[in-house]
Amino acid sequence: KIKFPTCSSNMPAFRQVGEKQLPNPVLCMAWSPKRDLIALANTTGELLLHRLASFQRVWSLPPSEYTGKEITALAWRPDGKILAFSLGDTKQVVLCDVEKAEILHMFPMQSSVTCMNWMEVEENSSLGSFYNSEDESKLFLPELPTLPKSEEKSDEILNLLGEVRLNILVLGGDSGSVELYAYGMYRIATLVTAFLIGMFLSLCSDLDFLSVVIGQLDTGLLSECLPEVTRMARKFTHISTLLQYLHLSLTCMCEAWEDILMQMDLRLTKFVQEKNTSTQVQDEFLDLLLWGQSSPELQALLMNQLTVKGLKKLGQSIESSYTSIQKLVISHLQSGSEALLYQLSEVRGMSLWKQKFERLGLDSEAIDGAITAVGSFSLKANELLQVIDKSMKNFKAFFRWLYVAMLRMCDEHVPPELNKMTQKDIAFVADFLSEHFSKNEELFDRKGKYFNVEQVGQYLKDEDEDLVSPPNAKGNQWLKFLQDSTHLKVLCCFHPIPKSLCTL
After folding, report:
1. 130, 138, 469, 500, 503 from 466: Cα distances, Å
2. Beta strands 177-182 and 82-87, pairing class
3. In the sheet where 57-61 sits, what is the strand order?
4. Which UniProt keywords apply (predicted)?
5. What are φ and ψ of residue 248, in 5° steps?
6. Who contacts 326 (Cβ-Cβ below 8 Å, separation ≥6)?
7. Regarding beta strands 14-20 and 26-31, do their DSSP bridges make them parallel or antiparallel, or are they unpaired?
């Protein structure tokens, strides 16, 4: 039950003006600072948003194992566009978009949050001029492309900064600590209150309540360094949103990659396990390529398991999937990496300005490590593009040849445009068979398959293992130059790392 009181002009007490029935008890509530909205958290772990006047429900966010089920505190961002709430069972703080009821950002806490407040820093004239000249990234960087609409969060994460003015989310934990998060994302201070001594006591006459005032903390450093704190906070919030943007881009790439692309690997492995001859799979396909003849086992694999229709579908799936992934790498992953590298480079420049930022704890060595990681990520994205380009050419030539060969096995008509194969095409398919159709015992021990014909999926696996089939670097003049150079040899950002994109 919720009651709505009001204060009468001729009475010191509040007067009730409304009452609403709810199915579950309410643990905490918060009124929007800008709109006629009230957020409620009930005992079931559900977060509700209602119109205050009519109490019409706008949306509800059910509890989940991913976020948590025990909401302990609520707070609105001063502009009323983001709602923060804490969860006691998972010890997390979640930022939720008010318009779409989408979780935009979440971060863990050391202890359960018992109270929170989100306030806006008061602006003065000197800080106002600083705000106007602070962010020059829009002058040098193009706007990031919008993520595909199928991705729920789309590009709302890029709006987490909200307005330019600094706002701070203050979180109080049950361990006695207080943490300050600029823009609700970047922690700028941690205060421990356990050491404070009581300054004032008051006991209620009926012994119901004891009030203790423990003290007032000095945060003068934040006030003195407000422009620097604001600059740091905005930079690190930009970095955090860009990391989320890259994560969502990788999610879209993983969705574009389909399990159907592994059918060739698994069917070839089954073929090796079931065939009675000692002939290598590679030799079987080369015989078909050179002489147009196939063994009964290979013919059964192609005609009964793979089938002409299945081969055509597999070829279309690979082309569609690879094209989608290629577009995402070029338009989203590379542009996001460039923006991230720009922001980190600016932060590194700030860290070298010792007079302004040293006492705020900026460490240039840690930033150098982050820049190196972004460089490795960009290098891996470029490597993936090369693998996609090569794989698309290989698969197109291979499937075109195999499709014609299977049509001939069925004694079906072969279209004239498919019947023409140059010597270059034959050499192309032969190289593809030699490189990808060799039986690999070590791969079977690791992945349960002898072949890794499809090589793009390994870049999208979140596994802390080396790539199954890394690109052949033999004869690469750039890598040879790096190895021979005394100075560049130690810079790992220039060297390929045999890990997947998701792992990096």
Report:
1. 47, 37, 9, 7, 10
2. unpaired
3. 26-31, 37-42, 47-51, 57-61
4. Cell cycle, Cell division, Mitosis, Ubl conjugation pathway
5. -65, -35
6. 385, 388, 389
7. unpaired
Asked whether 301 and 414 are in contact (CB, 8 A), the reply is no
Buried residues in 300-330 as b, exposed as e (16+ CB within 10 A): ebbeeebebeebeebbebbeebbebbbebbe
| pTM for this entry | 0.80
- Give strand ranges (E) for 394-477: none
Span 144-194, pLDDT tens digits: 888 776 554 545 666 666 666 789 999 988 888 889 999 999 898 888 776
**pLDDT by residue (tens digit) across 341-360?**
999 999 999 999 888 888 88
Give the other-Cβ count within 10 Å of 123's Cβ.
14
User: Using CA atoms, how far apart are residues 440 and 443, in angstroms rounded to an integer?
Assistant: 5
Given a contact cutoff of 8 angstroms between Cβ atoms, the answer to whether 457 and 253 are in contact is no
Given a contact cutoff of 8 angstroms between Cβ atoms, the answer to whether 225 and 232 are in contact is no
Backbone angles phi, psi at 145, to 5 degrees: -65, 145
Domains of the chain: 20-254 (2.40.128.630), 258-494 (no CATH)
Please, what is the Cα angle at 214 between 210 and 220, to 5 degrees?
150
Nearest CA to 116 out of 32, 175, 66, 180 is that of 180
Quick one: average pLDDT of 254-279? 69
> How many angstroms separate the CA atoms of 397 and 399, rounded?
6
Q: What is the DSSP string of 441-457?
A: HHHHHHHS-S-----SG
pLDDT digits (tens, 9 = 90+) for 396-451: 888 888 888 888 888 888 887 777 778 888 888 888 887 777 666 665 555 555 56
Residue 2 has pLDDT above 90, yes or no: no
318-322, 331-335, 392-396, 419-423: range with lowest mean pLDDT? 419-423
